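Dear colleague,

Following up on Tuesday's group meeting, I ran the structure prediction for the three-component complex that the binding team flagged. I've pasted the input sequences exactly as they went in, so you can double-check that nothing got truncated or mislabelled along the way. The structure tokens for the whole assembly follow below. Feel free to forward this to whoever is handling the docking comparison.

Inputs:
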Amino acid sequence: MRRSLRGIIDRLYTVFAIFAFLVLIIPLLHIIISIVINGLRRFDLELITATPGSLLGSGGGILHAIVGTAMVVFVAMLISLPLGFFAGLYLAEFAKGKFAHFLRTLISILAGVPSIIAGVFAYTVIVITYGFSVLAGGLALGIIAIPYVARSTEEALESVPMEIKEAGFSLGIERWKIVLFIDVGYAKSRIIAGFLLALARVIGETAPLLVTVLGGINIPSNILSPANAIPLVIYQYALSPFEVWHNIAWSAALLLMIIVLVLNLGVRYYLKIKMIY
Amino acid sequence: MLKYLLKTPKFWLIILMFGLPLVFMVSAPRAITLVGQGATFPEPLIIEWIVHFQKKYNNITVVYKGTGSGAGVKAILSNTVNFAGSDAPLKLSEWEEANRRHGPILHIPEAIGGVAVVFNIPGVDELNLTGDILANIYLGHIEYWDDPNITAINPRIRLPHERIYVVKRADSSGTTYIFTDYLSHVSSEWAERIGKTKAFRFPDELGDRGLAGYGNAGVAQVVQQIPYSIGYVEFAYAVKGELKVVALKNRAGKFVKPSLETIAEAAKYATNLPDPWESWHNVSIVDSPGELTYPIVSFTYILVYKYQKDKTVCSALKTWLRWILTEGQEYSEGLLYPELPQNIVELGLSAVNGIQAEENAESSALLVGVSLFLIMVVSHPRGVHNE
Amino acid sequence: MSRNRRNLRESLLKRLIRLDPIEGISLFFSVLLVVLTLLFIGKMIIYSLPVFEKFGVGFIVGTDWIPRKDVFGALPFIWGTFITSSIAILFAVIISYGAAYFIVEIAPPKVREFLSSVVELIVAIPSVIIGLWGIFYVVPAVRGLLKPILSPLSFIPIFSGETSGYSYLSAIIVLTLMITPISTSFIKNALENVPIELKEAAYALGATRYEVFRVVSKPLIRRAALAGIILAYGRAVGETMAVVMVVGNIPNISISLFNPGYTLAAVIANEFLEATSVLHISALIALGVILFAWSLIVNILAILVLRRVSMR
């Protein structure tokens, strides 16, 4: 090929690459800007301290959803942390052949479960007998969180350098102490980071909650109470015809974005600090 | 290992962090939950009611989902909700099925509403229509906005030569029922071909001009967004959505737009209402007489069974129903639903008073049977088996 | 009992006794997890059986979905999921390569970390928020901007018809936005790991930057890129919220991207709570099984393809 033609092609692709990058970034910026601009309208104290109010007024706040999210995510973590952590631990430390392969495959299958299906499952197990509840929502979100927790735990533990483990063995320390204190101790920050990232992932999930928690305006008190959640209330209000609710939806979205951002960036910062030594 | 862990403070911290909230969540008192489903027609009002009701009775949680009257009726027939909302009274067959499956079912009018015909023609703010023309638009016979039939009754308005996009409800809807009830009254072709129904398919004549939305909100959105469209929504949705409303010709010959006054007028003609535990399938107040009356008006009903299984649910239900018929009515007009006339409120209250927690029929039969058997056994003369 | 079985029992027992407490606990939870997962899969399959009993394989190719008449067919949703995810992944692949190339080759090295963080930020945005943005900005844009712009092309079937904005196209736009960062970060990471000597050798031979990318980098990153693309595709197939808020939710099968449609995930989310007939619930769960199987097949395909690619 002639040299100038090749140069032109190179430049064309450069233009394309810049264009592709912009195509990705510009909508992102637009989303963030619109969340901020629209969200500031109702981003006030009432939003987080009041329950829903009159349609003829400001519409109240989303305290009920904030409490609901906290409770549902709590139950989800209660379910997914032990299951995920120990599964990851087992795969990293004790895995042997067939069962390990089977377990890993199963975790991959769980990771591919569409979130709405997790909700449907929780519906058939819990809602049918105990009704719409925080427990059902927590189970659904827990199912989604387990693969994240398991995989990050496994990766964190596998990153423990062999020398440290060997040092432990050479000192005659029992196996379980090595695993619990040395391996987990070394990887602790990464494991906790994994927990927090799983939390950040499920806090924004809506689909499974649609069919498990009912979404009313009450503040849940009991694990079997129906509840609402921040992403769910965004969905309900966005689809409504009431402008009062649209405003609250944007502000709730801003709140949710801040929570997710703080979690994600917080984890990154936390890892950086912990990794320094 | 356990002994070691028990000594570690961190272990206890984790136990507390997770355990304490868990204990709280498992032992806290639970509110009684009432679940309702159905019509989107009264939904804004019900939402407002729930907000104020729960402020007063915060141990009762009420949740209402606007899924359309059809879904509400299905839900109450299979008894998966505590109460249902429907703008259409139960069909005779549905009423009989309800009675057969779960006992007497009550129709309690909770509000009156009007169905506004909304349109979106850029540059046009007012429009007169008759019921007959409306029916023909929905049947597909009238294709353009500047059709002679329409321009004839709108002399001072310039209508464009644009195709009419006709919007209906995609889901099974009581609002559709009320709308088609009206169209059946004013157009014999409509009564024959489609009749009054909660859902209908667009006639072929409409071609690709037929659109659908889910719920009153959905239809409102479609009309808001599609120029040259026409649709029907509950009046409050028209106002909230800032949609332009058609002035319909009523039975007295006047072109009337829906408003609190014109809708309330129709309620005056609601006479000879059945008792709440009877069938209401013939009740209709569309196209009522009167100069000021808006023609497309209807009650919207709460459907609830007379016999409830659970005592606490029963009394919570009665509290809720009593409240919406009395204190709740204060909020109706603010949301553009006329207040219920007193005679209808009393009709509703009498129905609510009749709701009771049933003694399980089967278990009492069993009790009687077992007692009889025991009596027979005990009183059986001794010595018989010596024969 | 035969000798073999007895030996097996003894060796398993011996293994169990030799377990230390941590291994024991881990094993317990892992088994619990396995049981939970199998229960999950089993329950879903059992609940979906009634509708297959009634319609057989016809359920999958059935085109009519009329719940009030108990008529169910999965095809409109399979079509919707297929068309939205396929076109979205097509866009995603094209954009990913370009964006990753930009980040790694064109942008100054100092901002690289920052730029890729920004791209990954999109993944962290909850889908309901993207749906919220979609309702208020994408849908009106499709109706008011894209349709008029593309109207000269409306003789082409995929661009024909009127639109309210709620359409396959809106769903494709939000899906593309959500999944592109996934494949972009995989490709970008892989590009960074291309050994610098190979690239410099190519430069020394007089290749342009693009040619180095095309001839040296691309073949080397094939495995990682494929993994990212497949992951992104799986995400698109299972995405519920953003799609249900903008796709129109009408179960028809149409070619025009401007028409409203429905996907498997969206219909389950919308109709599940209102389904009161057993058959309706079974049909929805069956759709869920189809959806689940779809992402499963995609994952298995990924493993197989990756195995082949790495063997080259």
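Chain A has a mean pLDDT of 90.

Cheers,
M.
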